Amino acid sequence: MPSRRDISTWRRLGLPAVVALAVAACGTPDAGLLDVVYAEPAEDREVRLLGPGETLGQILGESLGRADQQAVLLAFQEQASARRMRVDTEITLRFVRDRELRGVDVILNPDETVRITRGPYAWRSSMVRTPTRIDTLLVSGSIDQSLWASLMENEFLGDMPYNDKGILVDELDRVFQWQLDFSRQIQPGDAFRVAFERQVRPDGSMRGGHVIAAEFVNVGKAYRALWFDPNGDGKGSYYDEEGQSVRRAFLLKPLSFRRISSRFSNGRRHPILNTVRAHRGVDYAADTGTPVMATSDGVVQHRGALGGLGNAVVLAHANGFTTRYGHLSRFAAGVRTGSRVSQGEVIGYVGMTGLATGPHLHYEMIRSGRHVDPLAVDLPNGDPVPTEAIDRWSAELTPRVALLESVPMAGGARYVDSDTDAPDDAPGDETDDDRP
Is the pTM of this model over 0.90? Predict the structure, then answer.
């Protein structure tokens, strides 16, 4: 029978040491015994949601002493600022043995979790990235009311989260923004099909994605767009099957608007001055504060008051084009005379400064010194596929078109090309080299 001193020694050395003594006495131990001895202790998990006015420190204080509480907070701050925590931030407390806190997981957003673990000498932290898999969604349908309604009500997308459907609508709008105004030109009977490459989280939600091929038939006319990255740097663009860019030098519209309140005209009665005069632009009625975008890359020629246009921005573009944006309530930060802006960049916000009866944007386009109708002018296209990339484009074109055409325009959906892209620090995969 072992003495009290023997038992005391075993307690000090711990169970692994006891096993080592047994090995020395008896030879090779049973593998199952070692698995039990060195297994991670079972964890109990408690999930908390950060309440209004509550802090991570307060939650930790319920289970830790002052020193450990401060150590955990410092470990958290090595990965993220406490300002990133919002009401309802999910915090998982991981306990072992008699409610001993072994670790804390703070979910900052669907893609980032700060994991804090107790080591033998200190608390350690890491930023855990949610793993994703890659798949391609093929979906098609016809329009009854709008593209939005068609995708939201698509029976083949019943398991797709609502927000993800919204992302798909936005992506299609972005792809065809140079050819179609989805808010104005779409008609019942129009049809579409799209191949959408997605990054999907384990819970089925989507981290992000982009259209790799799409077709839209508007009033019998088909538009196709195929993604291609000529330089392999992730900064590709969309082209038609002939290798011509679907991107144009100018966007069709500079903002999201309710209606066109006044069109380009050589003779219109001014609503305030009550005189007949040329209206050399297009008025877009929109709510005050609606963002206004530069329709093309350019340089700011003017930023400030401009007669009846009130607060206005004037941009100079390539090929002799100039655009004007009038009646702005305010200007976007960083927009100054001489600064460069990119197509789609916000330059100001809708207002009713100058001679205006209500909030709207007055938009003008000037080519080689003459005003032209922005809604009717034939705008130049972007650059075609570069000559040095033609062979690679041709090799990618056939399978990309075949993929798109594999789903009928009449309506359908399926997923293909499943892949994985799990980071090394995916939850559950991390190693704990500092385990006591």
Answer: no
